[in-house]
Amino acid sequence: xxxxEVLTYDLFGTAARELAQQVADDGFEPDLILSIARGGLFLGxxxxxxxxxxxxxxxxxxxxxxxxxRLDLPVVLPPTLDAVDLTGANVLVADDVADTGRxxxxxRDFCAGxxxxxxxxxxxxxxxxxxxxxxxxxxxxxxxxxxxxxxxPVRTRSARxxx
Length: 163
Ligand code: 5GP
What we know:
alpha/beta; 6-stranded mixed beta sheet; 163 residues
């Protein structure tokens, strides 16, 4: 549809605190938080403070190219995460939204071979998501405007190779 779900920075702060409370109430004690960049960095950082976890990791995954426009498959972009960092850990994966759920599925499966436990936290989960997240703030099927991407970049850059 055409309707949008609008998340403000103010509401995001509430969402992050409430998600952290869900994790704490559940008794889950992550050794590290793995954010899915870029959209999951904000929640990962906020959960890091709220849950007193300083061990933050990032996985770069690209799937969406526009509003509801996707690549065929989510792809992991360099630099790739060193699996040694994950071995035996309780991992909390943080992302903005589980939409199709394919990004989270990719990251969860990547972790599954190494970690002791992996759980997922998202601000939003859509009904079509093939991954059922452990910690969810709100459910919607609308396109979500996140505060960090609701405005165009202040400048655009031409594509250049990763380094
Ligand atoms: P999925 O793999 O679950 O389909 O979605 C992967 C990523 O696509 C999300 O982490 C998010 O960055 C982006 N995405 C999916 N749905 C939305 C949406 O409704 N709004 C925005 N802004 N991004 C979305």
